[in-house]
Amino acid sequence: MSGLLAIRLGPKLAKHLVTKHILYRPATITPIRNLWIRNPFKKDVTATSAQDVVTKTEYEIELEKFEKKDNYVKYYGFDQDDPGFDEQLFKMLAVLFFSIVLGFCPIIMMYSPDFNGQMVPWRKREAIMQIEKRMAEGKLLIDPNYVPEDLIASMVPPAGDWEEDWLKKQASVCEDSRMRPFTQVPY
């Protein structure tokens, strides 16, 4: 915040020091502008010389204040000299922010059940929770009447090499890879 304040007040402070206190030489004073994003199609604005600023009367300075007040231009903080580019860049960044941060991030977070988890797939954790729940209730881990007997023969594929690979991926035969609380060591 203090950096932004220094960027905004830097040119005004330099002009004040030149007009009131004459502390700096005119060659060393340059306005602090366009530090965030520069417009490649716009020429840089040079500072007015200190002699022009000093020779103005108080009446002319007051008139300039009123002219600036009447010709007020919105300034979003990107390019003070080009209001069209400044507004265009503000709108572009606002659309990007709202579409990405408020549009896509909640969707990604909703559809990722193991978001920032402990490197454990969600299905293993869910299976372990179901096993612990059934054990606490005193039930068998797999209900023998889950599928009717007459449908079992049509559901089970023929024996082969696929069984070992398939069984390795099942959560009921995997080791418990959850982390212990406050440690990085598995149970």
TrEMBL record:
Sequence intervals crossing the membrane: 89-111
Domain of life (superkingdom): Eukaryota
UniProt subcellular location: Mitochondrion inner membrane
Gene Ontology cellular-component terms listed: mitochondrial inner membrane
UniProtKB keywords: Electron transport, Membrane, Mitochondrion, Mitochondrion inner membrane, Respiratory chain, Transit peptide, Transmembrane, Transmembrane helix, Transport
UniProt keyword Transferase, yes or no: no
Pfam family, one: ESSS
Predominant cellular place of this UniProt entry's protein: mitochondrion
Keyword RNA-binding belongs to the record: no
Membrane topology term: Single-pass membrane protein
Known function: Accessory subunit of the mitochondrial membrane respiratory chain NADH dehydrogenase (Complex I), that is believed not to be involved in catalysis. Complex I functions in the transfer of electrons from NADH to the respiratory chain. The immediate electron acceptor for the enzyme is believed to be ubiquinone.
Recorded family membership: Belongs to the complex I NDUFB11 subunit family.
Subunit structure: Complex I is composed of 45 different subunits. Interacts with BCAP31.
Protein name per its UniProtKB record: NADH dehydrogenase [ubiquinone] 1 beta subcomplex subunit 11, mitochondrial
Species assigned in the record: Phallusia mammillata
